[in-house]
Amino acid sequence: MSSPTDASHEHALIDGLRMGRLEVFRQIFEDYAMRLQRFAQLWVGADVAEDLVQDVLFDLWRRRDTLQVQNGNLTAYLFSAVRNRVGMYARHEHVSNRLTTANDDDVVSPGMGTSPVAPDEQVILDDFHVAMKAVMTQLSPLQRAVLLLRWTQGLSYGDIGTALSISENAARHHMSRLRQVLRPLLSDYIGPLE
Asked: What's the Cα-to-Cα distance from 33 to each of 1, 53, 55, 99, 160, rounded to whole Å?
């Protein structure tokens, strides 16, 4: 559960948004855009994630007068909205891909926009990325979402449950099972899991 301070802050943001205060919308955008983009990137690429999150946030502004946020939990509302938007996008892409055989993979030039890393650190980092990628491919999308919402976003189990339309206990259960799976696979790289 979020703390009373967080809840009162979210209520204030919702109230300000409903009053049409543009500075409140900017604050929401600044507070949530990057977190929501990282969440969307569980399923789609970075550019698509950015577009989908912007769509969700601008839709939030357009619908501010009729906004229905359950229990005043703006965080859970936004994560749910992004998850739903990603689902709509995925369904659209599935239909589009059936109609065309073109496969446009994003190509990134090596070294562009990256800072130099010491060779020994790079080897360890590369090994970790390979191990993490192997682990992530073994997880279901729901398990990946629970893991990333908990570890990277710091959401409570209740907020994770709301965002993913599962119970708080289900979120806890998934995280417990993930720890059991991840502990032996990643212990060499990150030490004991919390």
From this structure: 21, 7, 11, 32, 17
